Amino acid sequence: MVEQTVIIGVDPGLQARPAAQFVQKANHYTAEIFIEKDQKRINAKSIMGLMSLALSKGSEIKIIVDGTDEEQALADLVSFIEGNSE
């Protein structure tokens, strides 16, 4: 299991289109992927779960990944969250 705390850099945050893109990226991996914010943990492969966190730009979250492709999944998702990829 790997995890990393990250600040959301995508504008306007993980809402609507960016949230859908994030969930699509997460679903490319077999690992279990979770996002944690303020003691609430959601399945990052669920658009409804992700939207329930109301993550805006500048929010701090923890990404937790567990599975065979965890390292690649974490690197890809952190890069997206920080606004370094589309």
Automatic annotation (TrEMBL):
Q: Where is the HPr domain?
A: 1-86
Could you tell me which PROSITE patterns the record lists for this protein? PTS_HPR_DOM
Q: Which domain of life is it from?
A: Bacteria
* Name of a matching Pfam family: PTS-HPr
What name does the UniProt record give this protein? HPr family phosphocarrier protein
